[in-house]
Amino acid sequence: MTAPASYSEPPAPVFLFDLDGTLIDSVYQHVIAWHAALSRLDIDLSVWRIHRRIGMSGGLFVSALIRETGVTLSEADVAMLQQAHAQGYLAQAGSVRALPGAAQLLAALTGHGVRWAIATSSYRATSGHALSLLGLPEDTPMITRDLVRHAKPDPDLFLAAAALLEVDPRHAYVVGDSVWDLLAARRAGAIGIGLLSGGYGREELERAGAYRVYADPADLLTRADELGVRDLT
Amino acid sequence: MTAPASYSEPPAPVFLFDLDGTLIDSVYQHVIAWHAALSRLDIDLSVWRIHRRIGMSGGLFVSALIRETGVTLSEADVAMLQQAHAQGYLAQAGSVRALPGAAQLLAALTGHGVRWAIATSSYRATSGHALSLLGLPEDTPMITRDLVRHAKPDPDLFLAAAALLEVDPRHAYVVGDSVWDLLAARRAGAIGIGLLSGGYGREELERAGAYRVYADPADLLTRADELGVRDLT
C-alpha cells in the first residue's frame, strides 16, 4: 500500500456574506431612499446610476455623484444626504424581506460546522434590523461600516470578517450581489461568488470575477456541492 | 469618369423608441408598484425578479409569476393585480423624470428630418403622462398596448410603429432598455440598440442582440454617427 502524500491540509473554507441584495431583499429600498435624498438637493441622478452604486462606500458614492452630475457638495450637504438616506431607508424597512433560502442557507452551514460571517458596507444602525429578518441572534458574526477604515470595494470588511473567524482570506468564499463585493473579494484574496438577487446581470458578475453565479441564497444552497461543500441539503 | 453603380437606394432609417427606461426614468416606479400589488395577494416575489419582467406583456408577466411562485391566480386576481399596479404607478408618477437627453434627442431627430415613433408595452392610461414629461404634443406617433394584439417580446408593437411611419421594419432602429425590446426588434426584423438606463447590464443587452449599447438618450445623441446618422449634434 502506498503511503499518503505529505502536505499541510488547508482549513475548511468559510463563507463571508454581503447583506443587502445577498441575504435580504433591500437593494431597491436603498435605491429609492437615495433618489429621494438626492432630490432634496435638486439632484436628478437617473435611478439606474444610483442602483449601480449600492453596496459601495458612501464616500465613493458621493465622489462618483460629483463627477457624474457636476454638482459641488459641502460637507453639510454630504452629511444631510447620508442622514436622509438612512431615514428614508429605515422608513421603508417594513417592506424588506429575507431573500429566499437565506435563513435556511445560514442554518445549514451552521448545522454542518461550516463557519460564516456577514460583512456589509452599511452602518450598524441601518443593517441591524436584518438580523431579526433572518432569525439570527444579536451576537451573529457581523462586520459593519462602523468597524473598518474603508468600505467596499476596499477589502477591509472582508479582511476583518476573515480575521473574526481566524481564517486566512484565501480560504474564504465571498458571496455578494454587486461588482463592488467581487472587487473587494479579489483584493482580499478570497474567492468571489455572485448572486443575481441584487439586480446585476450574470455576465457582469462573471466579468467582475465571480467563480459561480447563483440566482439567490436558495439556489446556492441547492448547488453548494459546486463549491466543495458536501451534503448541505 | 465612371458611371454611378445602379441599385435601388434604401430609405433613410427611422427610430422606434421604447418608453419606460428608454425615454423616461420610470422603471423603478413600475417595479415598486408591482411589488406592492403582489404583496396584496401575499405574493413575496424578490424585487429583482420583478425588475427583469418590466417591459414585457402583462400576460407573460403573470405566466412567469405563476411558474416562479407556484401560486394560482384567478381572472379576478389578475385583473386586481393589473389595476393595483396601474394605480400604484400613477400615484408615483410625480417622481418620474425624462431621461437625460431624451427630449433633445427626439428634437434633434425631428430637426434633421429623421422620423421616429414610440412603441410601448404600457397602456395609454399609464404612458400618456410621458408626452408632457418629454414636451411632446398629444399627436406624437405612439403605439401603445391598447392598439396591438400582443405586447413585447412579440414584434407587434414595432411592426405597428413601422407601419405608422410607412417604413419596412428592416429600415428601423429599435431603441430599448430591456432584453424584451431587443427580442421584439429581432422578430420584427429591425436593428436593436440598447440603453443602460433601465438597469440592465451592457453584456446582457449585447447578448440579446443589441448592435450598440449607450448609457442613455444623451449618450446616443452624442454618438449617433455610429448609427450612420450624420450631423445630429
Molecular structure report:
Two copies of one chain form a homodimer. Chain A has 233 residues and is an alpha/beta fold. Chain A folds into two domains: 143 residues, HAD superfamily/HAD-like (Rossmann fold, 3-Layer(aba) Sandwich), CATH 3.40.50; 68 residues, DNA polymerase, domain 1 (Orthogonal Bundle), CATH 1.10.150. Chain A contains eleven helices and six strands. The first copy, chain A, has a six-stranded parallel β-sheet with strand order 3-2-1-4-5-6, with helices on both faces. In chain A, helix 9 links the parallel strand 4 and strand 5. The longest helix of chain A has 18 residues. The first copy, chain A, is elongated and about 75 Å long. Chain A starts with 13 loop residues before the first strand and ends in an 11-residue tail after the last helix. The relative contact order of chain A is 0.18. The model of chain A has no long low-confidence stretch (mean pLDDT 94). At the A-B interface, helix 1, helix 2 and helix 10 of A face helix 1, helix 2 and helix 10 of B.
Please tag this protein with its features.
homodimer, alpha/beta, Rossmann fold, DNA polymerase, domain 1, 42% helix, elongated
Largest interface: A-B, 28 and 28 residues
**Helix-strand string of chain A:** EHHHHHEHHEHEHEHEH
| Envelope shape of chain A | elongated
- The second-level CATH architecture of the largest domain in chain A is 3-Layer(aba) Sandwich
Indicate the CATH class of the largest domain in chain A: Alpha Beta
Identify low-pLDDT runs of chain A.
none
Strand content of chain A: 5-15%
Helix fraction bin of chain A: 40-55%
